[in-house]
Amino acid sequence: MAETVTPSSTSGTDASLLESLDPLLREWLPRQRWFAGKGREVTGFDLAATTELLPLDGRLGLYHLLVRVRQPPAPGVPPQPGDCYQLLIGVREALPPRLAPALIGHVADGPLAGRTVYDALYDPRPAEVLLEALRTGARVGALRFEKDPAHEIREQLVARLMTAEQSNSSVVYGDTFILKLLRRVTAGVNPDLELPLALAREGCPRVPAPVAWLRAELDTEPYVLAALQPFLNGATDGWELALRELAKGEEFTGEARALGRATAEVHTALARALPTVTLGHAQLDLLVAGMTERLTAAVQAVPALRPHERGLRSAYEALADLGREGQRWTAQRVHGDLHLGQCLRSPSGNWSLIDFEGEPSRPLAERRMPQPAVRDIAGMLRSFDYAAAHSPQGRAPAWAHACRAAYCTGYAEVTGRDPRTDPVMLRAYETDKAVYEVVYEARHRPEWLPVPLSAVRRLATSDPT
User: Fold this and answer.
1) Are residue 283 and residue 413 in the same domain, yes or no?
2) Rounded-to-integer distance, Cα 380 and Cα 368, Å
3) Which of 8, 79, 273, 397 has its CA 20 to 30 A from that of 383?
4) Separation between Cα atoms, residue 250 and residue 117, nearest integer Å
5) What are the pLDDT digits (tens) for 356-374?
């Protein structure tokens, strides 16, 4: 491996490299599932760092790039620095047919003129370079490959890219490890590494413990770029499992109850591992103000919410009223984006929770703030509603209601606190989540909009007392 840039500067060759890739990346990046700036023109790129991981020897080269994307701001949003993306660029004379889906394009000029560039994670050899760097604790340019010395990483594990749609990219190595490579990266402590490490220190078996990770230091700012964890071979994610049971006409209450217990165990361990805070009147007012602000923006974006706005606001107002009356809640670190797809069931029946990044669209500082545990619970309850939308006609409401009840029961068996005994807080967080879903579906999947709108109608007329 050879270093081509320092953490704080780029060379003329690096600038020429990015300039030659610019027209290809403008076409390729917006088509990627993990690109967050869809719908806005890409006007250019700024190079944060370039690292040559495989010197171009005439057959194969590998570049690690951190680039900031220039785009006009979204309507009503003040100008902000461009999102920073992590790219693994493979270089070949020509792509073999098996790598056709990875094609970025053919370079016309610059240091790679006449070569073909592609997403290197599709290619086992470049992907295996990352694992070897983690195994040996390499330091290359701005990149820091680090590992837990208590874990051994075997050599020569064959890599394969997981092709399911994700907001990041994942590579499996020999059915032993899985590397989650973050695509849009942010300076600071990323909860997707921070929380699993904390849970590992607590001995919590519900979350795979990180084995190794990749960081970068750019202008003294730390970036988490990837994490390697044990691969749960044969595990099924909760979303797939729920849909499978629905298709067979089977109940899911037993699994929902077990999943509630698993969630509670993770929450309990997080509360032991990291500080908790008490939410009083002032903190609760800030929380409610944020929910109300999001509702106001959502009503402007999706007119279908307007008839329900007053009822939805009442969910937040009821919570604020309890705070003014002196009620207090405990806030702690939580998963932040919990749903069925973030849970894995092993062949033995044990549930694990994964992907602690939180909602990537929210600022990192917000994702790391202590929250009431009911935020995660509300997300899972909404997920049961989404799964139920796939059920045979007439079964959806009853199936979802049974799963929601079973999940809360399982949670209470571990913590001694049933989320349903705090209906005002639960309703407020469910409402906040459903409002978010309405905006998301209206923008990205209009055919799914009836699912959160159904919840909106229920929550707008709900009387939690």
Assistant:
1) yes
2) 19
3) 273
4) 48
5) 999 877 888 999 999 999 9
Half-sphere exposure (Cβ direction) of 333: Cα atoms closer than 13 Å: 21
Q: CA 159, CA 265: separation in Å to the nearest integer?
A: 32
pTM of the model: 0.90
Domain that holds residue 308: 236-460
**Residue 1: inside a domain:** no
- 379 with 245, same domain? yes
Q: Which residues contact 264 (CB under 8 A, 6 or more apart)?
A: 410, 411, 412, 413, 414, 415
Q: How many CB atoms lie within 10 A of CB 75?
A: 7
Rounded distance between C-alpha atoms, residue 128 and residue 203, angstroms: 30
Read off the tokens for 279: 């939410």
CA dihedral (302, 304, 307, 308) positive or negative: negative
**Residues 195, 271 within the same domain:** no
**In this structure, is residue 189 part of a structural domain?**
yes
**Do 145 and 58 belong together in one domain?**
yes
CATH of the domain at 427: 3.90.1200.10
Two tokens at 257?
């109850």
Backbone φ and ψ for 278, nearest 5 degrees, come out as -100, 130
* Number of folded domains that form the chain: 2
Residues 216 and 257 in one domain: no
- The whole-number pLDDT of residue 1 equals 40
Distances in Å between the Cα of 22 and the Cα atoms of 104, 117, 417 are 11, 12, 54
Mean pLDDT of the chain: 92
pLDDT at 464: 52
Last residue of a domain, one of 172, 207, 230: 230
DSSP state of 178: E
Separation of alpha carbons 196 and 149, rounded Å: 16
How far from chain centre, in Å, is Cα 369? 16
Q: Are 195 and 333 in contact (CB under 8 A)?
A: yes
* ∠ CA 446-451-456, rounded to 5°: 110
Q: Which pLDDT score is estimated for 187?
A: 93
Question: Which parts of the chain have pLDDT scores under 70?
Answer: 1-13, 58, 75-78, 165, 392-395, 462-465
Q: How many CB atoms lie within 10 A of CB 155?
A: 9
Please give the Cα distance from 54 to 56 (Å, whole number): 6
